[in-house]
Amino acid sequence: MKKNQGLESLSFLSKIPGTAPFKGAFSEAFEFGQACRFETGHARQVAWLSLLLADRLRDFCQLAEEDLLLLGIGALLHDVGCCRGLEKHHKHSRDLILENHLKSLDDGQRQLMIANIARYHRKSEPKESHRHFQLLNKTERNKVEILASLLRIADGLDREHRQKIETLQVEIKPLSLILHTDCPGNLSEEKAVLPKKSALFTRLFKKTVQLG
Q1: What is the DSSP string of 94-129?
Q2: Alpha-carbon distance 91 to 81, whole Å?
Q3: What angle do CA 120, 187, 117 make, to 5 degrees?
Q4: Distances (CA, A) of 62 to 18, 36, 59, 139, 147
Q5: Homologous superfamily of 5-164 in CATH?
Q6: Of 5, 22, 30, 86, which is the most buried if we count CB atoms within 10 A?
Q7: How far apart are CA 71 and CA 69, in angstroms?
Q8: How far apart are the C-alpha atoms of 58 and 16, rounded to whole Å?
Q9: Which letter does DSSP use for residue 134 in this model?
């Protein structure tokens, strides 16, 4: 990879407030993803949607700038496990992240949280009986659940891996979260999968998630 190519591929970060301090870490994660032969377009789209949701919901979810680092890298690398096979690839993603130290993360606990966020982008929700989840303290577990819930929604919004959504606005209502997009294409697949992909968010925040 040419120098700075990772950063050029992540130009969308300039539109997400609070991500500037983490550009080097995002670039390193992107290069690691490429080494694992991840699907570049889908990874980039899910990372952008995840961070956009986090920015729009920063106050509601009580997120700090540090959380953007954890979520962004977890989103970029959520599918790297596919290089070991599609079956259980969410667990493979977790393992690959734990096996390959990212130099930009000077804290091993950060890497553990990112690995858990990536692992929970699909299938089972976090459970205290899960070994790697047990290694986190209560505060870290709560944070992983919140960030994984946003990643799940973002992953569902690129269900067909076609990067159809180009804008996203969030409307918070008493019992629901409405996602507005001006996507001219058909979003029937995304709408169909959204109730399942947003179930964790609904459990945590008592709000259903809908595409408006």
Answers
A1: HHHHHHS--TT---HHHHHHHHHHHHTTSSSPP-TT
A2: 7
A3: 10
A4: 14, 33, 5, 13, 11
A5: Hypothetical protein af1432 (1.10.3210.10)
A6: 30
A7: 6
A8: 12
A9: H
Domain coordinates in residue numbering, the chain? 5-164
Distances (CA, A) of 50 to 13, 18, 147, 152: 11, 14, 9, 8
Element (H, E) at 71: helix 65-76
Q: Taking phi first (over 0 means left), then psi (-120 to 50 degrees means alpha), and beta for anything else, what does residue 101 get?
A: beta
- In the 8-state DSSP scheme, what is residue 179? E
CB 102 within 8 A of CB 29: yes
Residues 9-63: tens digit of each pLDDT: 799 999 899 999 999 999 999 999 999 999 999 999 999 999 999 999 999 999 9
Whether pTM exceeds 0.90: yes
Does residue 51 sit in helix, strand or coil?
helix
